Amino acid sequence: MKNFITLADLPDFDQTLHLAMELKKQPTQWDSMGRGKTLGLLFFNPSLRTRLSTQKAAQNLGLPTMVMNFSQESWALEFEDGTKMSGLRSEHVKEAAAVVSQYCDMVAIRAFASLSDKEKDEAEIVLKSFAQYASVPIINMESATAHPLQALADAITLKEHQTPHKPKVVLSWAPHPKALPHAVGNSFVNMMGYMEADFVITHPEGYALNPEITKGIECTTDQQKALKDADFVYTKNWCSYEEYGQILRTDDQWMITPEKMKHTNNGKFMHCLPIRRNIVASDGVLDSPNSLVIQQSQNRIYSAQAVLKQLLENE
Ligand code: CP
């Protein structure tokens, strides 16, 4: 594995999932593996879970970290080639990536979608530029279109709650007052491609995810029908993909409530966090014993650790 940009970069998804679950049992069994190396964490956007869980994962491997909040602490970066840099951007990614590569043996990056330019977002300019100009592996800590560390953590959580039968897993859109990216939804869909499950996506009219990603997957605008007998309900907001970046509705008809969960098969509730209570899901859902959201965030440590370990072994 040269870089970890999407789940498809993993040499073997099932083996990585197994490794992550083994690491959870004995987190510090390879605690000298990272000795003498450094992991750089570059944030162009805020984070709670990703930042701390990736640092914790690195700590478990004896791998020191350096963190930079690019949006507040560093020079604004230019990504366009051949630009006359007379504006606000003081440093080109060509130099920045080369410089960071001298200090770090791996660089993890968070850079969200702009939600204003679909073509640019889908080009993954920040991550791909770093991958092009850095001489060390690049790790995706949520990019414009993907959040593979979250999806791997979600796979661990699904596995930990494995049902005796083939489970029904539902990805349900939920309301949100802000326009949110598609990264978590996209990577969850990709991850479900590796799992044995009946998988259904439900969303209101106008909120279909990228059809290239959902090709071959059952999608319905009937949330009630989708939730029936579900073993897992994964809830997430995303803005419209077709009317890119737009919020088409803000009513609470799609919020997940205890009444809706009654139609499931005593279904478990999942969300990547952060979550807006009583907007995306009501208190009764989040405070129920069927909510797995805290466990999901715990599993972020082991998904990151499984990826970091494999990258360290590559060297
Ligand atoms: N789920 C997730 O990535 O959380 P943060 O945005 O807090 O890192």
Describe the structure.
- With 315 residues, the protein is an alpha/beta fold.
- The protein has 13 helices and 11 strands.
- It has helices at residues 13-25, 49-60, 70-73, 93-103, 118-122, 125-133, 148-160, 183-192, 211-214, 223-227, 258-261, 283-286, 293-314, and strands at 39-43, 65-69, 77-78, 91-92, 106-110, 138-140, 168-173, 198-202, 218-220, 232-236, 268-270.
- Helix 2 (49-60) packs across helix 13 and helix 7 crosses helix 8.
- Bound molecules: phosphoric acid mono(formamide)ester.
- The site of phosphoric acid mono(formamide)ester has 9 residues, from helix 2.
Task: Looking at this protein, list some descriptive labels.
5-stranded parallel beta sheet, alpha/beta, 11 strands, 315 residues, 13 helices, 4-stranded parallel beta sheet, binds phosphoric acid mono(formamide)ester
Question: Topology, pairings included?
Answer:
Layout: H1 13-25, E1 39-43, H2 49-60, E2 65-69, H3 70-73, E3 77-78, E4 91-92, H4 93-103, E5 106-110, H5 118-122, H6 125-133, E6 138-140, H7 148-160, E7 168-173, H8 183-192, E8 198-202, H9 211-214, E9 218-220, H10 223-227, E10 232-236, H11 258-261, E11 268-270, H12 283-286, H13 293-314
Parallel strand pairs: 1-2, 1-5, 3-4, 5-6, 7-8, 7-10, 8-9, 10-11
The chain binds phosphoric acid mono(formamide)ester (CP).
Can you summarize this structure?
This protein has 315 residues and is α/β, with parallel strands linked by helices.
